[in-house]
Design a protein that fits this description.
The structure is a homodimer of 256-residue chains. Chain A has five helices and eleven strands; from the N terminus they run αββββαββββαβααββ. Chain A folds into two domains: 154 residues, Alpha-Beta Complex (Nucleoside Triphosphate Pyrophosphohydrolase), CATH 3.90.79.10; 53 residues, Winged helix-like DNA-binding domain superfamily/Winged helix DNA-binding domain (Arc Repressor Mutant, subunit A).
DNA sequence: TGAATAGTGTCTATAAGACAATATCCC
DNA sequence: GGGATATTGTCTTATAGACACTATTCA
């Protein structure tokens, strides 16, 4: 092989010509959509997936349940906006967050054209005890169990009385997309660990998988597979509770 | 189980209160980012992945290579905008398209705050012969081979002389994200078939997999797996060429 | 000691990888 | 027939699922 020739220094990101153009650039020359973020925060509790919603106290959809979210600041990153709105409206902070999908049908918001970048978050149940409270723009926050309905639809569990909570905008569709994404990624990523505290037992891990996948897994095979993946490290103690104590593990990812 | 009570009719999507509010709603009360779409069109040719780029003839980044894309119309869906801009700038139309990710770092465009919703598309090589041409806003279009560089980076193949084509904005990062996504989804979806014509041989299918995954696959195992998946139907003819002719297949998905 | 859960061992069925044998075409 | 590729068969190895057995704690 011939040795590679020396590479020239990279050109500047903006040229002098560009800078001149930019001075005369008018951002108002096009009609622009508004951009929001919405966040689906999920946890696993007692064999169910749950999502946190806030009750709207401003139009549109006053009184309906919505995902925490809101407008993106002009100098704010998308993930930054998602983190900020989540903290403002629900008090939840310092959690794992990942972009889900961007929903932009022209009719999805009755006010005007609004494109929303949806995120999903997974959080251990314990982290939330006493932490969730209604903040700015939210009249109330609550957890809703996710259930699988007929026709493969995924939605909120019906209340006593049989009616399902009404969701604002296309947020029901966003939640459904998020649940499908999590189910898909569960098997080839390590997102399950985001739903568990720092230390956990293999049975607790298996319960997370069983809840999200909606089926029982064989215990022996599950343990073999998880342990051979080499992403867990034995922790010091055990979890005790009336029976044989269970070894605690910690997620360490590849290596270490 | 108790029989479910009759469910009340769903409430209207917007209430009278909402409508009154909307009459007075001022969309200009917030600073709004601009929103664009960008499209990564990939094909597989001669053992390489290739992406189509257009040379910019307007600032910023005049002369640099960019993904086909542009501003989203105020009443236009995101996918509609992606389809439209792709046709306008490259002449490519009627192809499979899927949303990739939304890039929104505040500094990613020197003009103003621009959030871009990126899409990726897969198209059979044959479909493009003579179809790709530079259109509105593009000085030139060209195909670039994708190569894996040191440190796990994915980028454009260097030209003769050793320099790599300069890409506008954060488009190099978008292309890299798209290639990773395709590599990941190849194994658990049927996107590979989007890269092949209506009828193809199993060897051609295997070559698509080998190109994208960058490794040789065992022929017997590959055939067993693909055929047992039940998504192919034998087509009428064979592909002839100096050797034993190969059976043609057609992708039919589940069932039929 | 018994109930309950943790953890391990074994057998079988299935799938993946390696390798080779056979089949069919064109020249 | 020879070259080249298509297609199938077989053997080995790895993995998943089912099932049962052992281990440990607390009441």
């Amino acid at each position: 092989m011939a040795p590679p020739p020396p590479s020239p220094p990279p050109p500047p990101r903006t040229s002098a010509h560009d800078r001149e153009f930019l001075r005369g650039y008018d951002v108002t020359q096009f009609d622009r959509p508004s951009v929001t973020v919405d966040v689906c925060v999920f946890t696993v509790a007692d064999g169910d997936i749950e999502v946190v919603l806030v009750r709207r106290r401003e139009p549109p959809f006053v009184g309906a349940w919505a995902l925490p979210g809101g407008f993106v600041g002009i100098d704010e990153s998308l993930e930054g906006a998602a983190t900020r709105k989540l903290a403002e409206e629900t008090g939840i902070r310092d959690i794992w967050l990942e972009q889900l999908y961007t929903f932009g049908e022209p009719s999805r918001d009755p006010r005007t054209r609004v494109i929303t970048v949806a995120y999903y978050a997974l959080v251990p149940r314990e982290r939330l005890e006493g932490q969730v409270r209604a903040g700015a723009g939210a009249a109330e926050t609550a957890w809703f169990r996710i259930v699988d309905g007929r026709g493969g639809r995924i939605g909120l569990e019906a209340r006593e009385g049989g009616e399902r909570p009404e969701m604002a905008f296309d947020h029901a569709s966003i939640v459904e997309t998020a649940v499908r994404r999590i189910r898909g990624k569960l098997e080839y990523t390590t997102i399950a660990f985001e739903l568990l505290p720092r230390e956990f037992t293999l049975t607790e891990l298996q319960q997370v998988y069983e809840t999200i996948l909606r089926r029982r897994l064989a215990k022996a095979a599950f343990r073999r597979k998880v342990l051979s993946a080499g992403v867990l490290k034995e922790a010091k103690g055990t979890r005790r509770g009336g029976h044989r104590p269970a070894q605690l593990y910690r997620f360490v990812g590849r290596g270490r």
